[in-house]
Amino acid sequence: MKCWTNKFRVLFFIFSMCSLSFVAKGQLRIKGEVKDFLGATLPGVNVYEKGTTRGTITDINGLYELEVSSENAIVVYSSIGMVTQEIVVGQQNIIDVVLEEELLGLDEVLVVGYGSVKKSDLTGSVASVKTEKLQSIPANSIDGVLQGRVAGMQVINSSQEPGASSTIRIRGASSFSGSNDPLVVVDGFPLGSAGNLKQINPSDIASIEVMKDASASAIYGSRGANGVIMITTKKAKAGKATIEVNHQTSVKDFTSNLIQWEDPLLMAQLSNERSVNDGMVPYYTGQSIDQVYYPSLSEISSGAWPYNTDWGDVVFRNHPISHNSTVSLRGANETTSFNISANYLSEQGVYIKDDYEKMIINLGVSHQFNDWLKVVSSNILSKNKRDKNDGLAYWRNPLWPVYDESGDYWRTSSQDFDHPLAYTDNVLNTTKGLDVISSYLFDFTLSDHLNIKTQLNYKYGSTIADKYYPKDYTWKVIILMG
Q1: pLDDT digits over 8-19, tens only?
Q2: Residue 358 has pLDDT above 90, yes or no
Q3: 192 and 89 part of one domain
Q4: Which residue ranges does the record assign to the TonB-dependent receptor plug domain (predicted)?
């Protein structure tokens, strides 16, 4: 027995030593120093093992220590303004790193009000959003593309209605009484305020430059005091003609139930309490008031009262859908280039009969007539239609039915103008818009050192509203007549 005990102790000791050896081999500690390309130590550099939560930062002397999982671990060294490095640990216990300065983007060409310059030569504050980023953003409008993409720019969505515009502010507001909208410029044509962004198809955009300070937007004078959003549209490249087709479908949904009263019993109880506090007779006591019967609380709680209408199901859409399609054709040869595109947007709102449609046609032609004259033409036609439903369902009493026994709209009286379905079915509120933007640029090359450009711009916009409010179903007629 004693012999077996001694053997067990020996085996346990050997197993423990193997386990300790395995654990020690599985955990490695590395250390080192991080410097810049000039040899100066770099404090605050992020040092972490890729794919894990193990990490640290260099101290004031650029030194670090880090425990990694194995010899195959990849250690990442990153710092703002420096090129990120990744190093495999291997057999190294001491890893010293030299980080190079990040110079990417300094040769990038930006479009500004007076021409195009390299980013490295630009002294003003200009932010750029390029084609690669634009194509990765599924947005129906340009303000949706800009949201969260430019530092110092606020894109505020005050409404989620179909076709609604956003409020854009660059570095905040500068006036209490005047306009704070930035100036929108498309291919050198100053369109005006940010509301004109709806007339441009996001799929036609090659780049967007946002000028934030006075030095960048000075060429536009007081119109650029709130900043300038400069848009450059896509142009054809020499070679074969290209056809591009884009389509996106989006689905909306409610983040929460918009109906004010989900529990009819609670609504009736609170209504009675309000009446008592105001010194009035409670409504929900099983009596008729003004020829309308108000059930008692016991009728509602027992289920004897047959009506509990979900007005959201009556007038809300289930998962409203939006479609955005664009077809474009571009081509060019030695002297002539052209681009034509057609965009159609159909957007449904959360209410029935709450819709928005928009069609944009963009035609651009550039022709080099001779050695000294080049003409560039850009034309945009935009049409939109907005069918609006103001919506009343969120506060309609759930104890009232949709229809009465005869099949008409159930109303408390002839002056009941809050029936959501009656309003939806009978009220007409349609707005139609038409916008035409046309620009002709004449480029005269008089010599190798003298070039004159002149641009003729034309802009037309009209809005027609068709509104009809039947006197039997809406209070607006009463207000207008009063």
Answers
A1: 454 544 444 444
A2: yes
A3: no
A4: 119-228
